[in-house]
Amino acid sequence: MESLTFRHTTKKPLPGSLPNAITGVVASGNLEILLERVLPPDACEVAIETPIAGYGPVWEAVVADFVARAQPGGLRISINDGGARPDTVSLRLLQGARLMEA
Fold first, then answer.
1. 44: pLDDT strictly greater than 90
2. Residues 45, 76: contact at Cβ < 8 Å?
3. Can you say whether residue 7 is alpha, beta or left, with left for phi > 0 and alpha for psi between -120 and 50 degrees?
């Protein structure tokens, strides 16, 4: 099991007022993501637990792309990975951000 944490500064907080959201399911090579609105409005932290070691640079790139696109300021994001592909990770992160905007 590998644990990774990435911290980013954002230009703005993610819109909306929903305090938390969950997206995805850890099954069949997918992942589960918990998003919580608990950080300062210009901060984002993504913590990842994955059974597949050695993909830190890929995770870092996927998370950086998500932060640049969604500007998820104020969110702590916890990812429980079940072997998801990078495109699935991006999709689930964006789905979670959209849920939080409600």
1. yes
2. yes
3. beta
For residues 11 and 73, the answer to whether their CB atoms sit within 8 Å is yes
Predicted TM-score of the model (pTM): 0.95
Indicate the residue type of 18.
L
Q: How far is CA 69 from CA 10, 25, 82, 97, in A?
A: 10, 23, 24, 10
Is the Cβ–Cβ distance between 41 and 94 less than 8 Å?
no
Find the angle CA(25)-CA(51)-CA(100) to the nearest 5 degrees: 35
Nearest partner of 5 among 52, 60, 53, 51, judged by Cα: 60
What gap in Å lies between CA 102 and CA 63, rounded to an integer? Answer: 22
Please report, to the nearest 10 degrees, the dihedral formed by the alpha carbons of residues 70, 43, 53, 23 taken in order. Answer: -50
